[in-house]
Write a structure and sequence with these properties.
- With 986 residues, the chain is an alpha/beta fold.
- It contains 30 helices and 29 strands.
- Helix 20 packs across helix 25.
- Bound molecules: zinc ion (2 copies).
- One zinc ion (ZN) binds next to loops.
Length: 986
């Protein structure tokens, strides 16, 4: 039975192959429960059908359709894939839904740039043709990131792939809008928005990046008018960082109790350059300390001034157009850019002697996150969701629901749990202070707002809920002169609906119903901090709002805790460069995951990220580690080749190997996905190394399961690494080799029929021992592959198929059962301790050989003085010690003479018998160093054990461990002191 594996591990070849296989075979498709295509998994080993546990459902944070995979995606997707594969293998029905976001601004900009390079523009094309063009672009270039994901082997259900502008999602967006509108929660109003003159649209507060800029503070003198309406010769000085906005001033405000200005109450001013008469208003909001204490009021270009103007019923005059050029309200400055206008205005004011002072001033300037243009606060008409308002029919506001979802209600469990926990506080603080959500964008690419303006009565008509037709006539006056709103919805409006819209909401069919019943609420959201408010918060608002009317499977009303979009949120950390610097294009330290994958393989990159990922800790990505994990994969590859070589050799001599047995069971339909190895054949008097590796396997399985339960990817990865490389490859394989001796021998039948020769009998015995060894070896190797599979899916898939010689019990290792901790037949702790002693003995003898420069080929006898319990372990494993430590004979003694170089452990002292005179001064120096170290350790332990505060707080097992350590160190100290005393005087 050959297990053809190429000699060298080549990740590219195997990864391309399996990535395509997983997609082609639709391995991770999770059809609607109850449909004929459902069965994916057999029973789990405890006999429960997968349906007995709740489904494990995750949504992929949809990357922009324009996007390319970066390290952040790679981390996020690695974490999601590990968790999904692990849950799937643990018997949960697992569904991971992929898709892309239409990314309004980013996509429109991308296509616009293309048009410019072709000598045309969006405006020249017109709206319809432009949108057509964007769809074409999407057809050709969009979704490249999904192709990259396919190559990374993420275990998503590709049959459920969505696009936020596809038909079902568009239907959800429209229905959500019209429902909210008729509930009285969507309104249109003039408001100060963050206007980006570059993108020519409103952007949300979250899309504005603030940074400090060195600028100026201009103090400008406004002439005070006398009773006759003419300049009185007196001035009121105001201070501003944006002089061009004075064109839109409609008042100057002072504090009512400001003693400097009491005489100005009720007076008016002349706005310079424009010569508009404007009032002086009194408002307590004005800070007497800032500038001159007199504040120019520009309601259309500053949010604070806007609020002040509302209080005083002042008009708002917008002086800029979409590109932030001065408009016709700006008199002589009309048509020029805001910063050009600033220069002219300052110049003209100076000419008129109206500039009192120019001071250096550092202020906080907002920039567009996307195009970096300076944001212009500007009055414009937008659409909003009143997140703090009760709906028309009464009840909680959207924000109240979103707060309740995260706060624990009356001591009960939280409906949504955040990891790391501190994000809960950040979320609640934001949600408590949330303002109305501006949902309109002045773009063409996106969901056009389903509202129609009437040319006759100028009122708005929004279709009724659950209707698909656009209105033909105005709902107010009946006119048919309707035009649809030109604004589109903010991208987050559609992605906020995803938890409900991916399962078909609002379209109710038997299938969408069944999907919703099975998969909503989803289990987990894994995402970055940067979209906590953009996306995470909006999904919670929308999820709770729209799902609560959907009854439960049994028809009962949906409890609040079942209306949330997900039960857990895991906020992943940042991937930084090896020096812990943030990756940025300007710094040139961006690591392209695809390049690293090409160089080392996906598995090694995934393992690198996992081995460093734990809640709240940023990752310093270091290629050296990836190189190390590539070597880990290689180590496993070579182990597989060694194992298969022995399986094949055994088969040559007619030794039935476990696969043949497996084949028989498979034919009888008895094989569950845990394979042959779930059968309780192993047990009884196995050699120590077998009992040890099995005990360690189950212990590691327990650790990995616990770690993943708590998002400790690092602990899980490191436990597997230690087990697979440190214990299995480095020790177990070396030891088990001693039992793998196969040779021609008569069969059992032959032996029963005639008298065998001594040689024949010996060969038969050896083959039987070898067969037993192969069994455990394969069992542990196959289990280890399953343990590693969520982390290194490609390597393990390849080797798993090879283990079963191309006839595995399932289509993929990803559908096999994940190892669980399990009780073994004797005390695993004791077995692990015994083996640890044996390992220490072997390491100690190797050290003694090195210290005494024993040649590699020379075997030496050892003398050993061991504690009672360890003595039989040594005798039973004599062959292992002899082979691994190159020992010719083992003699037990009561005491190892002190004139021999010794290796000591609290349970034994050992020396090799080798003709070499001891170098007394060197030995004295070594012992003196040891003694100093032991004394220091002892003092530390004593100090800690004498510390009452520590003893009161420390868990009992820690105290016990410390006591044990203290006793052991004391013993080592005594031994070293005795050895020092016994050294000959120099
Ligand atoms: Zn912009
Ligand atoms: Zn009308």
């Amino acid at each position: 039975m050959p297990h053809d594996l190429p000699k060298a591990y080549d990740p590219t070849a195997i990864e391309d192959h399996w990535a395509a296989y997983w997609v082609r075979e639709k391995l991770f498709a999770q059809p609607t429960p109850g449909t004929p295509a459902t069965p994916v998994q057999d029973q789990s080993p405890d006999g429960q059908s997968p349906g007995a546990q709740p489904a494990f459902v995750v949504l992929l944070p949809p990357p922009n359709v324009t996007g390319r995979l970066h390290m952040g995606h790679m981390l996020n997707q690695t974490e999601m894939d590990i968790l999904t594969r692990w849950r799937r293998m643990s018997g949960r029905l697992a569904l991971w839904v992929p898709g892309t976001d239409h990314a309004g601004i980013a996509t429109q900009m991308m296509v616009e740039r293309q048009l410019v390079s072709e000598g045309t523009s969006r405006q020249k094309l017109g709206r319809e043709a432009f949108i057509e063009r964007v769809w074409q672009w999407k057809q050709h270039y969009g979704g490249a990131i999904l192709e990259q994901m396919k190559r990374l082997g993420v275990s998503v259900d590709w049959s459920r792939e969505y696009f936020t502008m596809d038909e079902p999602r568009s239907l959800a967006v429209r229905e959500a809008f019209v429902r909210l509108y008729h509930q009285g929660l969507i309104y249109r109003g003039a408001y100060i928005v963050n206007w980006c003159p570059g993108c020519q649209t409103a952007v949300s507060d979250l899309e504005v990046i603030h940074s400090e800029h060195k600028g100026h503070l201009w103090e400008i003198k406004y002439p005070i008018l006398g009773a006759d309406g003419k300049d009185s010769g007196e001035f009121l000085t105001v201070a501003t960082t944006r002089p061009e906005t004075m064109l839109g001033d409609t008042a100057v405000a002072i504090h009512p109790e400001d003693e400097r200005y009491l005489h100005l109450h009720g007076k008016k001013l002349r706005l310079p350059l424009i010569n508009r008469e404007i009032p002086i208003v009194l408002d307590e909001w004005v800070s007497r300390e800032f500038g001159t204490g007199a504040v120019k009021v520009t309601p259309a270009h500053d949010p604070n001034d806007f609020a002040l103007a509302e209080r005083h019923q002042l008009p708002a005059i917008n002086v800029m157009d979409d590109r932030a050029h001065i408009n016709s309200e700006g008199g002589p400055y009309a048509g020029v850019d805001r910063y050009v206008a600033r220069k002219h205005i300052v110049h003209d004011l100076e000419a008129q002697g109206l500039v009192a002072a120019v001071k250096d001033y550092t202020n906080n300037v907002g920039h567009c996150d996307r195009c970096k243009t300076v944001i212009e606060p500007r009055l414009s008409t937008q659409w909003f969701i009143a997140v703090n308002k009760q709906p028309n029919a009464g009840g909680a506001s959207m924000a109240e629901l979103a707060i309740a979802a995260v706060k624990s209600g009356s001591g009960g469990p939280k409906a949504i749990r955040f990891t790391p926990e501190n994000y809960e506080k950040i979320y609640l603080e934001w949600m408590t202070n949330i303002h109305d959500w501006c949902i309109s964008r002045q773009l063409w690419w996106g969901h056009r707002i389903p509202a129609w303006h009437c040319a006759v009565c100028h009122k708005i008509t929004v279709p009724l809920p659950n209707t698909k037709e656009d209105p033909a006539a105005c709902a107010h006056c009946g006119s048919d002169k309707l035009t649809q709103e030109t604004d589109v919805l903010d991208t987050w409006f559609s992605s906020g609906l995803l938890p409900v819209s991916v399962f078909g909401w609002p379209n109710v069919t038997p299938q969408t119903r069944a999907d919703f019943d099975a998969f909503y609420p989803t289990s987990l959201l894994v995402t970055g901090f940067d979209i906590l408010f953009f996306w995470v918060a909006r999904m919670i608002m929308f999820g709770c709002w729209f799902s609560r009317d959907i009854p439960m499977r049994d028809g009962s009303p949906r409890p609040f805790a079942e209306s949330v979009p997900y039960r857990e949120v895991y906020i992943h950390a940042l991937v930084r460069d090896a020096n812990r610097e943030k990756m940025s294009k300007t710094k040139g330290n961006v690591v392209d995951p695809i390049e690293i994958v090409k160089a080392y393989g996906t598995d090694a990159v995934r393992f690198t990220l996992a081995s460093m990922a734990s809640p709240g800790t940023d990752i310093a990505f270091n290629v050296a580690r990836t190189e190390g994990y590539r070597a880990f994969a290689n180590k496993i590859w070579n182990a597989a080749r060694f194992i298969f070589m022995n399986v094949d050799k055994a088969a040559e001599f007619g030794i039935k190997n476990p696969f043949d047995v497996l084949g028989q069971h498979r034919d009888r339909g008895e094989i569950k996905y845990e394979g042959l190895f779930s059968l309780p054949i192993i047990g009884g008097n196995l050699p120590l190394e077998d009992r040890w590796i099995l005990a360690l396997l189950y212990k590691t399985a327990g650790e990995v399961n616990d770690a993943l339960e708590n998002y400790r990817f690092d602990e899980a990865a490191n436990a597997i690494y230690q087990f697979f490389w440190g214990s299995f490859c480095d020790w177990y394989l070396e030891i088990v080799k001693l039992r793998l001796n196969f040779s021609p021998a008569p069969s059992r039948e032959e032996l029963s029929q005639r008298h065998p020769t001594v040689e024949e009998e010996k060969a038969f015995e050896l083959n039987a021992v070898g067969s037993g060894a192969l069994y455990t070896l394969l069992f542990v190797f196959e289990s280890s592959l399953r343990l590693l599979s969520p982390f290194m899916p490609f390597l393990t898939e390849e080797l798993w198929h090879a283990v079963y010689d191309g006839e595995p019990p399932a289509k993929s290792i990803a559908l096999a059962i994940f190892p669980k901790p399990r009780a073994t037949w004797d005390s695993p702790v004791l077995v692990i301790e015994e083996m640890a002693l044996l390992q220490d003995l072997i390491t100690g003898i190797r050290w003694l050989r090195k210290e005494q420069s024993v040649e590699e080929k020379t075997l030496t006898p050892i003398i050993i003085s061991a504690l009672g319990g360890f003595k039989p372990v040594i005798d039973e494993n004599r062959a292992i010690i002899e082979r691994l430590a190159r020992v010719s004979d083992i003699r037990h003694v009561l005491r190892v003479p002190n004139d021999l170089l010794q290796y000591r452990n609290p349970s034994f002292e050992v020396a090799i018998l080798y003709e070499r005179t001891i170098d007394a001064p060197a030995e004295r120096e070594r012992l003196t160093k040891d003694i100093a170290r032991y004394e220091k350790g002892l003092a530390a332990a004593e100090r800690q054990l004498g510390n009452q505060a520590f003893l009161a707080k420390a868990p009992p097992h820690v105290v016990e461990g410390l006591k044990k350590q203290e006793a052991e160190t004391r013993l080592l100290l005594e031994k070293a002191l005795a050895a020092l005393a016994a050294l000959p005087e120099s």
